[in-house]
Every structure is written in structure tokens, then in C-alpha cells.
Specification:
The protein is of the alpha/beta class and 490 residues long. The chain is built from 19 helices and 14 strands. It folds into three domains: 73 residues, Arc Repressor Mutant, subunit A, CATH 1.10.10.10; 238 residues, Type I PLP-dependent aspartate aminotransferase-like (Major domain) (Aspartate Aminotransferase, domain 2); 122 residues, Aspartate Aminotransferase, domain 1 (Alpha-Beta Complex). α10 crosses α14 and α17 packs across α19. The protein starts with a helix and ends with a helix.
Length: 490
């Protein structure tokens, strides 16, 4: 540490601790330099820093003295032991409300462990092409890219996305309705701020994506959980129970986490309900490109004739999670409100990445990557389902997903999925319990098994490791039942 900084710190600590009391005259810079055998310039620099920060002051005829304006609480700061509860009390009500919602950080040792959901095939990513495009735009960056851009996003990327969505997803929009965001979380956050007020209600799928719940609860929006059946969100409950809500969040093409699709009848009912109740539908179309038994289902937004659907898409699953770029498609009369809210939030998304992504899409690399990954994930999905049925028949009941990057496998009745998940982590498996995504108790526990990032060899090798874990819990249930029976008989 430089000498002037050492001297500054020593004097500052002495003032804060009260050793150098308020109003005390300090030795001159010449005296200190002579006593410490250091350069006078060093002392002068230290004094100038203390003077600038208000610890000392110069008085005509009195020299340099410790300032009288330091408040008592500052003087006591080094004498008091830190109290962690005080920090909590100083936080805003919003932050204190959010604290219980913040999820536990992922164990670093399990970051890439089987069978983490939502992880793409990292070894198959087109990083060479992506790297070349990024380098090209860094070398030839235009003024448009080098300065603050349009908060709605890079125009060429918005044009590329609107063209792609029209062909691949049946979305009806033009580039002016597309707003680039930093992933689906920001898309949900912006939507909640534009379309709802604190105290409003929002319908969410149960079980469902926890990220939307965190955002809505942080905004002071009440959650109305609705169950999910084989044909998606149970829309009939909206009608039967006369639910009053401003927003409905839904994953119609591939429900998270169960993987089911919202039927056409339910889609039409939901759109009709939104119109009659002056409500908005947030359509999160994640993973929709990866459908295996048929062509990808057209987006709900394509059926909307009344401008009630806010469409959310992201590149984190189809490319890679660290590419924090997603997009919103909003009705034309809401574009200005969304763009203004985006500008207040963070001005704009990184422009070099947007320019590279625009080229990645327009030159056909994106469509080619989707085709390759669809074939690869279809193979891994089949291996996962077959291995579960062959190795764990009677212990796990897999739902054969028609789309996506993971499957749900149901446990025997009364077996706690959270306990099986915890035991799986001890043997190097990263498996989420379905109950973690539910607001209300589920009739049966289940496991979320991601397959997209793992080779057939890994799937075949590690799925059987679940057998002993599940059998242990089934055996425990049997022993408890026997003990209860003996107690009754006794």
C-alpha cells in the first residue's frame, strides 16, 4: 500500500475511534515528515485526502485540526460491533418481501451434472460461427452499434425475428412490434409493470415456472394458481370460479414443467375470457421449436384477433443460456409504453450481440441449428424414456413428452420427490423435484429429468442409479406402514 494511503488510514482510524478528538490540532506536515522520516509530499497528499473527505479542516491561526462536524454515530462506528439485523431493518419493504423468494444458488459441483433441466447440448453449440460473427461486428462496428441504440432493439434483429416468427411460429406481427430484452425474466418484469398495478391479480400455472412468480410477487401482484391437466391449463376454472385477474401467464406450446400442450379448445376459451374480462395473456413460448411427433404448434398469439396476447421468446434455450437476449411481441397500441419502460430499465441491450444474432438468423445458421438440435434431442429423449421403462419400471412412470428438453417421471405414491432429489445430489445427479414448482401440494411426487445436454451413454449409465434411491424410500414407507399396523393390532 502506498505510504500516503497508510498515513491516511492511520489518521482516519484514530479520528473515528476518538483517539484524535474533535477540534484537536494536528502536527504540521513538516513535523510529521521529519518524525516519520518520509517525504513531506507524502504527508501533504494524505492531508489533502483527509481534508477533501471532511475529517480535518484548516483554520487560520490554528493550523490543521480535526473537524467538529463529524456526527457522534460516525465516531462510534469502529467501537460498535456489527449487528446483522440492522442491515435487514434498513432495507426497503420490497426487498424484505423478496428475501424469502430468492432461490438457493446451484451447487457448483452439480452445475453440469446429469440430469439438469434447461441445459442445451453445450458440445454441439455453433460457437465457431458465433465467434466469427461477433468478431466481424467488433472489427467493423458502425456508429449505430457503438452508441446507445433504440431501446426497442437493433432494427435488423427485430426484422429477422419477425420474419422467423411468422414462418416458424405463426405469429402475426411486424418488426415494429418486436422489442429486444435481456431474456424472458426482463420480458415478464416489463409486462407486469406496464399492464398491472400493485394489488392486481395474475393467474399462473400450478405447477409452473417459478421465475414468473418471483417477478409478480416482487411487483405486489397477487397470484391465482390454477392446476394443469393433460390438455394444459384448466381454463374452465377461470369461467366456473369467475376469476378476476389482470394477467394470465401461460406456456401453451410446452407447459413448464409438465410438458403438456394447451388444447385448441382451451386456447380459444382463454382468448375469449381475456377479451370479456379486459385481461392480458402472457404467452411464454420457450422450447417451442423442439417438437418431435409433429410440426411445432402455432403460437397462441396467432389466434389472437383482439390484441390481448403479449408474446415472449428467448434464445437462451435454443442457443446458450449466457446469451441474455430475448424478445417481446406486443400489440401496436402498447409499443410506446413498453419501449419507454424498457428505456427506463436499462436503455438498451448489448448491440454487438444483437447485430451478430441478426446475421446468425438471416444467413440461415439459426434454422440449421434448430434442425440439428431437434434430431439430436429427439434421440436423447427416446433413450431417456426407454431407459426409465427398462431399468425403473414400476418405480418411475415417465410422461412421454412430445416437445422440449426434459421429461417428468412420477414417483410411487407417497414417496417425497424432494427427498429423492436430495439423495440424488449426493451421488452426483442434479434432479429437481416437481414439487419445487408447485404452489399447492401435488397428488404425487415427480422428478424433472433433463436429457438435452447428455449423451445416450451418460443417460443409460446414470438413470439406473435412481433405482436404489427410490427403493430405499419405498421400503421406508413399507416399514412405517407395518409399524402402524402392529400398533393398531396391539
Amino acid at each position: 500500500m502506498p505510504l500516503y494511503k497508510q498515513l491516511y488510514d492511520a489518521i482516519r482510524q484514530a479520528i473515528l475511534q476518538g483517539t484524535l478528538r474533535r477540534g484537536l490540532r494536528l502536527p504540521s506536515t513538516r513535523q510529521i515528515s521529519a518524525e516519520l522520516k518520509i517525504s513531506r509530499n507524502t504527508v501533504v497528499i494524505a492531508f489533502e485526502q483527509l481534508l477533501a473527505e471532511g475529517y480535518i479542516e484548516c483554520k487560520t491561526g490554528s493550523g490543521t485540526v480535526v473537524t467538529n462536524t463529524l456526527p457522534d454515530e460516525v465516531l462510534q462506528v469502529q467501537r460498535q460491533q456489527f449487528n446483522g439485523n440492522r442491515t435487514v431493518s434498513l432495507r426497503s419493504k420490497t426487498v424484505r418481501k423478496l428475501a424469502p423468494l430468492i432461490p438457493a444458488m446451484l451447487d457448483p459441483k452439480l452445475r453440469f451434472a446429469p440430469f439438469l433441466y434447461g441445459l442445451p447440448a453445450l458440445d454441439e453449440l455453433p460457437l465457431d460461427v458465433w465467434g466469427r460473427l461477433l468478431a466481424r461486428h467488433c472489427r467493423t462496428a458502425s456508429i449505430e452499434i457503438a452508441t446507445h441504440g433504440d431501446p426497442a432493439g437493433f432494427r435488423r434483429l427485430r426484422e429477422a425475428i419477425s420474419s422467423y416468427l411468422g414462418v416458424a411460429r405463426g405469429v402475426r406481427c411486424h418488426a415494429g412490434q418486436v422489442i429486444i430484452v435481456n431474456g424472458s425474466q426482463q420480458a415478464i418484469d416489463l409486462t407486469s409493470r406496464v399492464l398491472a398495478d400493485q394489488g392486481d391479480a395474475a393467474v399462473v400455472e400450478d405447477p409452473g415456472y417459478p421465475g414468473v412468480r418471483w417477478v409478480l410477487q416482487a411487483a405486489g401482484i397477487k397470484l391465482v394458481p390454477l392446476p394443469v391437466a393433460r390438455d394444459g391449463l384448466r381454463v374452465e376454472l377461470l369461467l366456473r370460479e369467475k376469476v378476476k385477474a389482470k394477467l394470465v401467464y401461460v406456456t401453451p406450446s410446452h407447459q413448464f414443467p409438465l410438458g403438456v400442450a394447451l388444447s385448441l379448445a382451451n386456447r380459444l376459451q382463454l382468448l375469449d375470457w381475456a377479451v370479456r374480462n379486459n385481461a392480458w395473456i402472457l404467452e411464454d413460448d420457450y422450447d417451442s421449436e423442439y417438437r418431435y411427433e409433429s410440426r411445432p404448434l402455432p403460437a397462441l398469439q396467432g389466434l389472437d384477433r383482439d390484441g390481448r396476447v403479449i408474446y415472449i421468446g428467448t434464445f437462451s434455450k435454443v442457443l446458450f443460456p449466457t446469451l441474455r437476449l430475448g424478445y417481446l411481441v406486443v400489440p401496436e397500441d402498447l409499443v410506446d409504453a413498453f419501449v419507454a419502460t424498457k428505456w427506463i430499465s436499462d436503455r438498451c441491450c448489448p448491440l454487438v450481440e444483437q447485430a451478430a444474432l441478426a446475421e446468425f438468423i438471416s444467413e440461415g445458421y439459426f434454422a440449421s441449428h434448430i434442425r440439428r438440435m431437434r434430431a439430436l434431442y429427439m434421440e436423447r429423449r427416446s433413450v431417456m424414456i426407454e431407459t426409465i421403462r427398462e431399468e425403473l419400471g414400476g418405480l418411475l412412470e415417465p410422461w412421454d413428452p412430445e416437445a422440449g428438453m426434459h421429461t417428468v417421471a412420477w414417483l410411487p405414491p407417497k414417496v417425497e420427490d424432494s427427498q429423492v432429489s436430495a439423495d440424488a445430489a449426493k451421488v452426483g445427479l442434479n434432479i429437481f423435484p416437481v414439487s419445487r414448482f408447485a404452489l399447492r401440494p401435488l397428488p404425487r411426487g415427480g422428478l424433472l429429468l433433463g436429457y438435452a445436454a447428455f449423451s445416450p451413454e451418460i443417460i443409460r449409465k446414470r438413470v439406473p442409479d435412481l433405482e436404489s434411491l427410490i427403493k430405499t424410500h419405498v421400503g421406508d414407507l413399507g416399514r412405517k406402514a407395518n409399524q402402524a399396523g402392529l400398533q393398531v393390532a396391539g
